[in-house]
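Recall that a protein's primary structure is simply its ordered list of amino acids. Everything else, from secondary elements to tertiary packing, is in principle encoded there. The following example makes that idea concrete.
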Amino acid sequence: MQGWNVYIGGLVHTIRTKGCDRMLVLNQEQKRIIKDTEGIKLVISGPGTGKTTTVTHFLANLLAAGKARAEEVLAVTFTVKAAREMRERVRILTGKRTDVLTIHSFARRVLCAFPPTGFTADFTIIDEKQEWRLIKRLLAAEKLDMHPQAVREIFTLARNTRDNALLEKNKLSALYNAYMQELRGNNAMDFDALLTWGVWTFANNPVALNQYRNKYRYLLIDEFQDTSQLQYALLRPLVTGNLLCVGDYDQSIYGFRGADVNLILNLEKDFPGLATHYLKENYRCTQKIVKAANALIVNNTKRRPKPHLTNRPEGERIIRKSCANPITEAEYVASEIQAAGQKDGAKWASIAVLYRNNILSIPIAKVFMEKKIPFQVVGDRDYFDLPEIKNILCFFRLLAEPDNLEAKGDVISVLSNLRISSSRARLPSIMKSLAGQGDLTGTYTAILEQTGMLKELERNTSQAGLKALANVEELKNVLADFRNKKLEDFLDYTEEARSSLSDDAVNLLTIHKAKGLEFDTVFIIGVDDKTIPFFQNQGREEIEEERRLLYVALTRAKNSLYLTYPRERTVKERKLRLYPSRFLRELKLEMGAISSVTIKGNINAFYQGRPDYEAEAEASRKENPQGPWKDSSGNRWGICKRCSKFTRDWWSLDGDTNMCECNDCRYQ
């Protein structure tokens, strides 16, 4: 096995690798982090700044320099894929295997060694379907009319935030206790219970805690910005002196799952001697993209100023495009992709279309299919493969092919799951009624109403349930395009509108799924003020997370970036007028404010924090009582027409200067 001679802060370490011998290139900040292995450290790693390289080489240097043996190091990350990749990189660099685990894998290891009271070491871990069935049975026993998925979501959020008040608020404390007792009685745990019992074990079993504190002299936590209170409570007791946390508060986008951005912002309260390092050079994005991202995120208050710059070229102009509706938006995206391919010979796989919600991908997939653009849905199922959509499509398939045994079996299964008694016997009458509806949209409505499917969907108030309902409602819009076509044409379309099997295909994915990825060209669609920020997320902290979500989306682009939005969208058979996202204003007026020379030479311009726009607008109001009133970013301010609050005039983004409404009134 050959090695790299790695120069780190005046020291030369040999890091063994298979089949290569070359100098490892690291920037000065990375070298400082890797060299300084002792103590409590926080690394703030902005997008594209080489976080994974830094983390893996920190671990490699730790082992190569003899600071720790492989078995004395624990690195924790939050996905199986990330853990596997980091473990393999360290193995390639050093030839050694160390514990790089997901937090659930670590908790399981602890509990197998020290089973809590009432459990044995061979406890089982139940999956989501088993959780559902157990909760459903307990709900029936207690005669509670709640959907199992909604209950499960509350259980998950309460445990991850360590907030029992959520259970009390929803009158689920007794049900939760019964659920946990049932699991213990069957020597079983769900995934959240692994963490809950792990915390309990360290709090109540000093032998267990001391064993792991003595075993692991070094603890590394990756993606720390996405840590929940429960996860932190499991890991915090392990720290004896050496801790490295890596993350970026500006990329914390999982608050809806219980992640707490305050943990990374307030880490020094738990560790007063904390040393903070900043990975500031973005190797991914052009200057214009970095400048736009910085201009956006500085509007958040729950953050700290941080350097974020690039030495890449200035790059292409960021394109903002207003479209008439989602179809014309999709056609615009398709035409730009085709033009780029003809001009530059770009590979399809180097392009991504990002969106806030899966539902926005439907027009994109339709237009791409028509224009023969290969695409793949990344990290999610294709729309027509979603369970709630397949539950409806099987009725259409049986109508088209009455002798199709697979479709018949699927329909009977759906009816049984909807608690329709004698479903097999009632099937002929149900299908006869559906066949007499006349058109596809009428058949769709009859399926939802006659089976009780719509009521069941509406009963599921969880986030996943709301998404499923929105997906089903969108199917009616899809069917409207087949108003004058045959049922067979629609079914053929549902089979064709699927991800390409080719490795070279345009990537379609949600912004959440795009975290950690990068593409040469990125289209962010649906950048309207009902979608991002999402219309249901209008609290101060929720708006800030929505802004962080767009920040993540912007910084997936290496060279070319497009932001598009429709002016109209059909929702529940109504034409909904849309306005550009308020975040676009923050991008548009800030993008050209700082020269490229300043970005390279003076990063202080980027971390002076957010100006007090309201105070500036108030000053403008005093100077000119008749208006117009503006702040230093050019934002127009006004009096809310409904509650008389002095507020930023979001409506004027699209030219309507006499419609000022504050967020509270606008989204009532």
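Residues 116 and 201 are 6 Å apart (CA to CA). The chain has 29 helices and 21 strands.
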